[in-house]
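To fix ideas at the outset, we first show an illustrative case, written as a sequence plus integers encoding its fold:
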Amino acid sequence: MLGETTRDRKAERREATRQEILEVAWSLVREHGLAQLTLREVATRIGMRPPSLYTHFASKNAIYDAMFGSAWLEYEQLAARARVTLPAHPRARVRTMARNFFDFSVADLARYQLMNQRTIPGFEPSEHAFAPSVRVVRQTVELLGEIGVTDRGDVEILFALIGGLVDQQLANDPGGDSRSRLLDRAVTMWADGVGLPPGPE
């Protein structure tokens, strides 16, 4: 009929297959670690011959690239939803932002390692895959700027504090909360250092 959009069923099937490959890849890296991912195992899990994977991803690093981009996009979307309910008070805002990133990070070791650590020799994310992380950092800097934190060094110290606690939690107490319980204290120390006004605890 006139006015109807013609569906590209071939493209839809191709995209569905790509998503299935990525889901299987995530499942495997969560089971065995990022470095242990093999195209043969991905193909076996899907029921596909290994050479057929190359019609969807040119290499294993291309799969990592898509995983990297999807992980950061997932966090970007979470942060965007959280942004509309962020507290107005500077310290409460920073605590909430830190908690959101911390909880997202410790929920999935493999995802965090791919997003924030260089655990895959020779892998560098493409500009396209890296774009969501750039937007997240830019938006975080904007939110901190709104409460008077404009020095880039102060921002980097905050990132390092949160990332360090995430690393310690995942390395020494996976599934626990020992570093989670230190997060608010660390943010308070940082807030004191950058001169944020005291506020509700």
About this structure: The radius of gyration is 20 Å.
